[in-house]
Design a protein that fits this description.
By secondary structure, this protein is an alpha/beta fold. The chain has 14 helices and 18 strands. It has helices spanning 2-21, 28-32, 48-51, 55-62, 78-87, 91-94, 127-133, 167-180, 195-201, 206-229, 283-291, 376-384, 409-441, 444-452, and strands at residues 36-41, 65-71, 100-103, 108-111, 137-141, 157-159, 184-191, 237-241, 247-248, 254-256, 266-270, 274-279, 297-301, 320-324, 329-331, 340-341, 355-358, 366-372. The radius of gyration is 28 Å and the shape is globular. Bound molecules: 2-acetamido-2-deoxy-beta-D-glucopyranose (NAG) (8 copies) and zinc ion. One 2-acetamido-2-deoxy-beta-D-glucopyranose (NAG) binds at residues 201, 205, 207-208. One 2-acetamido-2-deoxy-beta-D-glucopyranose binds next to loops. GO terms for molecular function: bis(5'-adenosyl)-triphosphatase activity; metal ion binding.
């Protein structure tokens, strides 16, 4: 009886875990799950949260989740990171590697201003397509890639990219789609600030940045109000995050390639802070000159890129990659292009964004120090109840953010089960010992009856 009780406890725990792990793109869970809204405020450096005040954002995660620091992917640029958030893949695996790319086989060129050829995006399946492939709909407002026919499909509802459409209009369209079409399961929203101000004024211009960040916080307020007014707030799961951080640049930190190399011997596919270089013929002479070019810039042959950057295994990565140190700018004309920039090594804290979440799927008042941006994808798949595509994320890194997960409390549960087991074993031994004493005095047959009735023993059930 004791054993049976313990086993049923164990089965209950295991059954719970097993039931949670049977995600299926077409299963019941998608039909019942509330929609998910994913929002990116471009260039929201993690430590802005500590330096500036965000009354609305604070309210948002006070009864939700905050992750202080998100390790994003290299290169820490806008397009690679937005595609990583949507796919859970490193840049080398999803194929959007930089703001400017060149494909040596097809001789095609990519830039953020000319991004519409699906060729560049087809190496991965972003989450909005997985939702559609599971029979549901998606809605998108300017998130990179959502207006492109990736694997022959755009997002179900989308806005063509236009930087002049303001936050309210983007949000208005999304909430309209969410309320009018109940089969919309994922909505994704992109906003250009505080990236734009960070580039223009530099993140250390506190006057300008506090103004830009107040506007961002006002927009978060607008978002909460709008969801509240449309009756979505209590039902919807909302994730607010960003693609990368920002660091101050300076005209005292310039690396001019022309001081090292004659421009006629190579072409530049992308320039700063990570340069992609194609030598025209003599690779080793170009590499040797670039290697010694500047103490604040590293030169790598493609095959020698450090493993941790996950920036090696793709045709679109050029033969030589130059990486400037934090705050340094690679130039060809001796002039500083921007007061703030990003794109640097993704191990730098200044390149990291944050993440906050709110909704029925999330814990309330839960705070976590760190995660990887690729972990977001398996988290979203779990919330939506869809199957994950192969990815580089780890659900275990983020499972504690969710209410329905056993999480680290599993250790506590195991502790309690073991504790109870020890206690019951001790009690059983004592009990048997007492019975043996009873038996030795008299009435041997009564003892046998007792044993048969063991299941209904009041002390142990
Ligand atoms: C997922 O759902 C489909 C369609 O209902 C079904 O054929 C398939 O067996 C399911 N897969 C799993 C792993 O449950
Ligand atoms: C955009 O890129 C394609 C190649 O992918 C090229 O054919 C086209 O000319 C480019 N358009 C512009 C406006 O640069
Ligand atoms: C792409 O979609 C269109 C219509 O949505 C369809 O006619 C066409 O066959 C599809 N092409 C491929 C390659 O799937
Ligand atoms: C949707 O966006 C368009 C601009 O693309 C804007 O004119 C319109 O007002 C927006 N709709 C709502 C409901 O906000
Ligand atoms: C911030 O930017 C403004 C506008 O460019 C400029 O006038 C001001 O001097 C800058 N402040 C600092 C501290 O750099
Ligand atoms: C939603 O609206 C109600 C009623 O106006 C208000 O009491 C509540 O504070 C609002 N909640 C949020 C999160 O804005
Ligand atoms: C670069 O090389 C070209 C061709 O070899 C030569 O004409 C030019 O003077 C060189 N420029 C510099 C700055 O050395
Ligand atoms: C990332 O995931 C992809 C898809 O599963 C896989 O091909 C690739 O090897 C992974 N990268 C690393 C570094 O594990
Ligand atoms: Zn960005």
């Amino acid at each position: 009886m004791l054993l049976r009780g313990l086993l049923s406890v164990l089965f209950a725990i295991c059954g719970f875990t097993i039931a949670e792990n049977t995600g299926n793109g077409t299963s019941q869970s998608v039909k019942d799950s509330p929609p998910l809204l994913l929002v990116s405020f471009d260039g929201f450096r993690a430590d802005y949260l500590k330096q500036y005040s965000f009354p609305n954002l604070q309210k948002f995660f006070a009864d939700g989740v905050l992750v202080d620091d998100v390790t994003n992917v290299f290169t820490t640029k806008t397009f690679p990171n937005h595609y990583s958030l949507a796919t859970g893949l490193y840049a080398e695996s999803h194929g959007i590697l930089a703001s400017h790319m060149y494909d040596p086989e097809t001789k095609k060129e990519f830039s953020v201003a000319n991004d519409t050829d699906p060729f560049w995006w087809n190496e991965a399946t972003p989450i909005w397509l997985s939702v559609q492939n599971a029979g549901f709909k998606s809605a998108a407002a300017m998130w990179p890639g959502t207006d492109i026919k990736i694997q022959n499909q755009t997002a179900t509802y989308f806005l063509k990219y236009n930087s002049h459409v303001n936050f309210e209009e983007r949000l208005g369209n999304l909430t309209k789609w969410l309320t009018e079409d109940k089969s919309v399961r994922i909505a994704i929203l992109y906003w250009e600030e505080p990236d734009r101000s960070g580039h223009m004024y530099g993140p250390e211009n506190t006057t300008r940045m506090s103004k830009a960040l107040k506007e961002v916080d006002d927009n978060i307020g607008l978002l909460m109000d709008q969801l509240n007014r449309t009756g979505l707030w209590d039902k919807i799961n909302v994730i607010v995050t960003s693609d990368h951080g920002m660091v101050q640049c300076s005209d005292k930190k310039l690396i001019d390639l022309n001081t090292c190399l004659n421009s006629s011997v190579y072409t530049v596919v992308d320039l700063t802070p990570v340069a992609a270089i194609r030598p025209l013929n003599d690779y080793s002479s170009v590499y040797n000159k670039l290697r010694k070019c500047h103490p604040n810039m590293k030169a790598y042959l493609k095959a020698e890129m450090p493993e941790r950057l996950h920036y090696k295994n793709n045709e679109r990565i050029q033969p030589i990659i130059l990486v400037a140190d934090e705050g340094w700018t690679i130039v060809l004309d001796g002039k500083l292009p921007r007061l703030g920039d990003h794109g640097y090594d993704n191990s730098l804290a200044s390149m990291h964004p944050f993440l906050a979440a709110h909704g029925p799927a999330f814990r309330k008042g839960y705070r976590q120090q760190s995660m990887n941006s690729v972990d977001l994808y398996p988290l979203m798949c779990k919330i939506l109840g869809i199957l994950e595509m192969p990815n580089n994320g780890t659900f275990n890194n983020v499972r504690c953010m969710l209410v329905n997960q056993t999480c680290t409390e599993l250790a506590v549960v195991v502790g309690i089960v073991i504790g109870v087991l020890i206690l019951l074993t001790t009690l059983t031994c004592l009990f048997r010992l007492m019975k043996v004493r009873d038996m030795s005095s008299s009435r041997p047959f009564a003892r046998l009856e007792l044993e048969e009735d063991d299941d209904d023993d009041p002390l142990l059930s």
